[in-house]
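Collaborator request, handled under Task 6.
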Amino acid sequence: MSSNEGAVQPRSHAEAMDAIYRTQRHIYDLTRKYYLLGRDRLIADLAPPRGGTVLELGCGTARNLILAARRYPNARFFGFDISEAMLEAARESVRKAGLEGRIFLTRGDATAFSAQHLFGLQGFDRVFCSYTLSMIPGWERAIAAAAGSLAPGGRMHIVDFGTQDELPRWFAAGLHAWLARFHVTPRRDLGPIARSIAEDAGLAIDHRPLYRGYAQYAVIGG
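Structure tokens returned to the collaborator:
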């Protein structure tokens, strides 16, 4: 018998996310609204052009896409997630919102995706990630892939957990321990890595902390 035979193999990221959200998806939006700060600011900043296209990486329950589609009725919205369990919830939410003709969903991996392959498009006017990079192994590749999917003049918006350096240590330690239960790891080096990716692509970047470092917000592009 080989040394690996009979051993428990590590789950893929997709399997891990499905395991977490198979039940969590039913209460996800209700619980997360209290600590996923900055999401609504991101949506308000999107401002896609008339007839523009907007993509969300890791769309989850489609909460953000639905709010954005209502705010910008002249744009089309696209989203993908690696978790089929979350996509089930997202499709149902979009159906209930009556937005099936403007929000399009599929399954995909944020670290290696093609706008053409997933949605038949050359690129997007806006791309955004809302509290997803902290859950993605290889999140650096997700930023690069998203930046590479921007149409000329497009922008990428990112909001996620920050460093919490300006907050009490006990608070940051407790938050990190709790987030780890859900495979969430705040990315302390998101700013410099996003800046490097943006500069390599010839794009501008604005990165700043929010709420005393609880969250961080970045905009890449024109």
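The cover message to the collaborator said: "The two ends are 58 Å apart (CA to CA). The beta strands are 53-57, 76-81, 103-107, 124-130, 150-161, 205-210, 215-221. Please let us know whether this matches your experimental observations."
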